[in-house]
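COMPLEX REQUEST
Ligand: adenosine-5'-diphosphate
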Amino acid sequence: MNVPSQSELEQLLKKYFGYDSFRPGQLDIINSVLSGADTLAVMPTGGGKSMCYQIPALVFPGLTVVISPLIALMQDQVSQLDEAGVPSLFLNSSLEWEEYAANMDRIRSGEIKLLYCAPETLVTERMQKLLASVKVSCFTVDEAHCISEWGHDFREEYRRIAEIRERFPDAVCLALTATATERVRSDIKTSLKLGAPRAFNEFISSFDRPNIFLEVLPKGKSAMAKQLLLGFLNTHPDESGIIYCASRRQVDELTLLLNEKRIPALSYHAGLSDEERKTNQTRFVRDEIPVIVATVAFGMGINKPNVRFVIHYDLPKSLEQYYQEIGRAGRDGDAAHALLLYSDADISKIRFFMKEKTGLELKAAEAQLQAMVDYAESRICRRKVLLSYFGEKAEEGSTGSASCCDICAGMQAGGNQFLTDVDVTIPAQKLLSAIARTEERYGASYVIDVLLGSRQQRILDNSHDKLSVWGIGKEYCKDDWFQLTKLLLQAGFIRKTSDYQVLTITQDGWDTLRERGKVMLPFVPSGTAGADDAGSSRMKFPKAGKAAERLPADDTLGRRIFEQLRNERRRLADQANVPPYVIFSDRTLEDIAVKKPHIRADLEKIYGVGETKAAKYGDFILVTVKNCEK
Ligand code: ADP
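STATUS: Structure written out below.
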């Protein structure tokens, strides 16, 4: 099969999906799959994973089977593809038999490009027969981390995918996931037998979601927390968002409070009936209600692109969980806001529930919580802390700006509410050298004791009092050294092993040591500065900068067109019984309102309008614009 050129692939993207260019990583993954190599791609939520198999599916002569654990998402994906003019369907237990049989006929006829199914469906006899009767070009395994016990969502049935794959030696396999540590990635590769016998490529896109502004506020007592929440919501009126709470009681209490304040909000938690949960979720997804207050149970399978904020009213248990939850914001690439409220009481609550755990499991949970707390208490760029936790370095330019995080915004503003960086090159090198000289085998306390010239028995036994670094750190007290250790950890110069909390030096740390590079961090040795009073002065909720050209505030006609389009979209969506974004994204509506198309040819320039949508909704767009201009 001839692999299409980049411009041919871009034409497909434009024709079917109405986008002008690929997002970072997409093209490499698509090319890999089309070249016939098994491919594992890790891309953050909202990164645009679906396109990585949808474009190849349009090129392949045969069927692309997409294995996904979430039945709820299949309907959504198929509706969106339908709208884009890509023949696709799903087979799962939610279908009536007649529809199931009709879908099977359409697959046999060869007209279908994409078939979505759950792993349980894939392994059925009926499905096997069906697939054997057609040409299968590609198996796409979505949420591929479910295959590994080391992932956060293990599914037994995923293990059987490999055996099915073996029956289709000509089909290439693409595995996709948003979160996978090295261990999980290697599990995916082995379990799916990726690369045997064909070639294998692995792509790991950045975990960075630069359009999400990161903010943390200490929430103090309950009354202050509520005030912070209402303050935020008042500065983000009509925006769609999720508020996560640690308990059902808290969810219900906040929903009540918001409704009292005339902020339309619904609850979502395991205490509600299935019916209620489903209704509330649907109303949120369909933009009927802007805010949903939820426990962590909410979010899997929510594909809503225009979630503008995610608020954590309580501290999550781990950065993994936190990252996944904030990832539900800003999937459309537009600016979004992640606000975390936390207090010491949250930490105690999590610790209390950790008591049930023992051994290594307890240790892992403690280390995860500590990383979460370190993030919340960070004095350096939060993006750097988050990325460094996932083993990644922040890209030049993605940090430091006012739209990055509260810390960077504070620094940009030159405000005194945040601490400024100072030159810590000398103490940083002392600490890094002490870790190196003790062979990266000890925790922070021991390393610091060496710097302070302690004569503890353990240090004497190891002859570490003979090291050149012994006693060279007496200018600071132990607490100050702990503070510096934390800053170096957050900035990614050193790392802590999760089991024994041993400090090791990262590549960046070694580079700094060898090249004697300057290290700037907001270090405040005791007695030299006041504490970081993160209270009221930070309650101003800066809005993150918008990513693309937007509707100017003074374009009243544009605003009118946007509102009108939004109403019309709701009507069309209700008629078709789909969420509004399946028809057009908010971004597309805004682009129409800015560009005000008058003739069909103008539609080509609109973001997110491909040929099928132009044919189907072109008149609706042109007429709406014209009517507003009258
Ligand atoms: P993921 O599965 O990685 O979370 P999706 O595949 O749902 O992300 O994509 C997120 C959003 O980005 C969707 O609305 C999708 O249409 C959009 N998108 C994907 N690729 C592009 C692109 N190249 N240009 C613009 N938007 C894109």
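REMARKS: Residues 19, 22-23, 26, 43, 45-51, 303, 305, 331-332 surround adenosine-5'-diphosphate (CB under 6 Å). Confidence is low (pLDDT under 50) at residues 528-548.
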